[in-house]
Amino acid sequence: MNWFEDFETHHFEVNGATLFARVSHGAVAHRPVVLLLHGFPQTHVMWHRVAQKLVNDFYLVLPDLRGYGDSGKPADSDNHSSYSKRSMAQDMILIMDRLGVAQFGVCGHDRGGRVAHRLALDHPTRLTKLCLIDIAPTLDMYDGNWGHSPEAWAQALPAASVAVTNPYFLFANAYYHWFHLIQPAPLPEQMIGGNALAYLHHKLGGWGTGGMAHIEPAALAEYERSFLKPETIHAVCEDYRASASIDLEHDRASRTAGQKIACNMRVLWGERGVVHRLFNPLTLWQAQCSGQVSGLALPAGHFIPEELPADTAAELLDFFIVA
Question: Which domains does the chain have, with CATH numbers?
Fold first, then answer.
């Protein structure tokens, strides 16, 4: 794939899994290192246009998370710990160890942002800066902590939803997959497998994107190749089952202990997305960070790095080098 002609291909045996990653050519020295983490239902390929704009300024590491793309799909455990964000964050630390990288910046979109959040909590001395794209904290989202005052909520609710007095209805309706994918196996796996291609396309074109025009044909082909496998569908469900169980345990324990993200953060979200409509991401992330939190909404839906690659690259360049 000529998108990644400036990258090397690696397979890392770490933490009980084989992880696929693309890594910038050449030595790490004299370049800031940035780890780019993809989300659901994609792979590292979602970063292709952003990476081409950043490759001359950064040493980039683009892995497929465990369970996704060409990375391994470890056997699940009774408590879903195989797909916990703690396990995924440890994967990333071990990859960076193999590459000889002591400190680095991280940018995560969607599920990758949740891995990045846990990485920042579990390994605070390794991160220089953290950028999260189109997410609010998992615990706040499941707990219905919107970050808005009641007055702000009255203004935020769309006119068509005036009759809805509980905003959790809007969240569950928009993010129904958060509740569908966590059901016991094999129900969601079998339902998705009935027409996995239609399911994938629906997700890629949703959450404010208004269709799949933002996805290049070669990228779509990669997503289809990777997602339309029973083992991937099951692994994705395990990722979400972990988020609704063991990840929440870890997040509550971190908050009880007063643990916060130590580095500065940049938060980006889409004006047409669910996070913008229902949550106040800057307020929620500042509550979980002892550093400075900055950010803004961009004119996009959920899949910002592919909808607005130039804007995304400019934001990352500004944050990781200039700011």
Answer: 2-322 (3.40.50.1820)
The mean pLDDT value for 180-191 works out to 98
**Band of pLDDT at residue 1, cut at 50, 70 and 90:** low
Task: Decide if 95 contacts 286 (C-beta within 8 A).
Answer: no
Contacts 24+ apart (CB under 8 A), 227-234: 227/41, 227/196, 227/200, 228/196, 228/197, 228/200, 230/189, 230/193, 231/73, 232/67, 232/68, 232/73, 233/189, 233/192, 233/193, 233/196, 234/73, 234/76, 234/185, 234/186, 234/189
The number of angstroms, rounded, from the C-alpha of 12 to the middle of its chain's C-alpha atoms is: 20
Whole-angstrom distance, CA of residue 298 vs CA of residue 39: 18
Single pTM value for the model? 0.96
Q: Which residues are catalytic?
A: 110, 302
**Pairing mode of beta strands 127-133, 264-270:** parallel
Find all residues with CB under 8 Å of 142, minimum gap 6, and list them. Answer: 178, 244, 248
- CB neighbours of residue 209 within 10 Å: 22
Contact 50, 314 (CB under 8 A): no
Angle formed by the axes of helices 246-256 and 85-98, to 10°?
80
Q: What does DSSP assign to residue 210?
A: -
Structure tokens at 192: 């998705």
pLDDT (tens digit per residue) in 214-246: 999 999 999 999 999 999 999 999 999 999 999
Distance CA 77, CA 2 (A): 38
pLDDT digits (tens, 9 = 90+) for 264-309: 999 999 999 999 989 999 999 999 999 999 999 999 999 999 999 9
Q: How far apart are CA 219 and CA 315, in angstroms?
A: 22
> Tokens representing 236?
């994705």
Using CA atoms in the order 70, 31, 46, 228, what is the torsion angle rounded to 10 degrees? 0
Convert the pLDDT of each residue in 28-82 to its tens digit.
Answer: 878 999 999 999 999 999 999 999 999 999 999 999 999 999 999 999 888 999 9
